[in-house]
Amino acid sequence: MSHVKHLTCLICGKTYQPDQVQYICPDHGAEGILDVVYDYETIAESLSPQSLASDQDPTIWRYKPLLPVDADAPTPPLTVGGTPLYATPRLARHLGLKQVWLKDDGREPTASFKDRASAVALVKAQEVGAEIITTASTGNAAAALAGLAASIGFPAVIFVPASAPQAKIAQLLTFGATVMLVDGSYDDAFDLCLQAADAYGWYNRNTGYNPYMSEGKKTVSYEICEQLDWNTPDVVFVSVGDGCIIGGVYKGFYDLLQLGWIDRMPRIIGVQAQGSNFLAQAWEKGEDVLTKAPITAHTVADSISAGLPRDRLKAMRAVVESGGAFVTVSDEEILTAIPELAQLTGVFAEPAGAAAYAGLRQAVRSGLVSPEDRIVVINTGNGLKDVASAMQAAEMTGAAPHFIAPTLEAVRRAIGD
Ligand SMILES: *Cc1c(COP(=O)(O)O)cnc(C)c1O
Ligand SMILES: [Zn+2]
Fold it and tell me: Which residues are near ligand 2, the ion (C-beta closer than 5 Å)?
């Protein structure tokens, strides 16, 4: 048995037992996103900061009582979670801040944050006896699902826009997934995947549709608090596309507050690309995200390109309830953030990961954070996912190799000796 009490619709507040509905509140079609509600009293009987301190398991499964899975459910063997939280004194000094940490989820098994959710999806798919699992994705959720599926020999069918970066498509093919390269946007791929899952009875991992994905993603907040000895950070920066990660970040801190393991919620700052700013627009103008029309999304940060953020209710809740904000950054700011972050920390991020750092840079300029704040920046994806963008960023900052003859004389000239 899991410790899930029920699922609550974020629109109408109706509650369901987990076996009553599979993904969404039937009253609102694909919009009826459900929140998973737990019985914290019974969770506290089997889990505490002390029990965690002596648990050797570094993966997200160390928090199994807080996850929507049965205690004895088989879990994929890959090491999902347990990523490093680096103190970054040089970066902090560079921005005139006291304390900044970088949570590096580029270090997940398939090199993005999405592994946290896909691991949970595979447990749930097995639980309901599904034979095939599917998702649409801008690339990383797909790679995560394909990799975790491969780790247990589970067939996966993946829908990605044909424009997805090569490295991500290479991951899908290498892991042996059936790959549908959709001639259209991520939003088109998403709608098609929902139809296909329905038509063929495939288990549906889609973000902002499957209620359990933000549950996997919330483990990042547990890790951050554990790694900071339960001293909650003041501010967390995370990039936002569909809004599932930021919703999960909020949920993780929320759970810990309910358990009384932390005493306050950090302000959660969602960073969007200027060309994919649906949520930032809605937040600034006070628009209802359910009725707001989709926008046309264009950004170099493919992982956060979403014209209609599928998890927008949870994303908006995360920012509003935590007293946070949405900020937007231009593609140029995102690209220049890649080498800057890399040179200040040694961490190579893909554009959507570096966007969170670009958001921090901007928040310092605008006074959204103060020098005393204890700040965590989440890198959501590894830079090797999108080498073309990294090369473009290097060019923009004037970094270039020296083309030299194989002689010491040529080296001497290159270093200006
Ligand atoms: C998916 C993704 C995001 C955004 O997550 P959402 O849940 O879509 O908001 C950010 N960065 C990377 C690298 C991602 O893969
Ligand atoms: Zn409802």
Answer: 9, 11-12, 14, 25, 27, 32
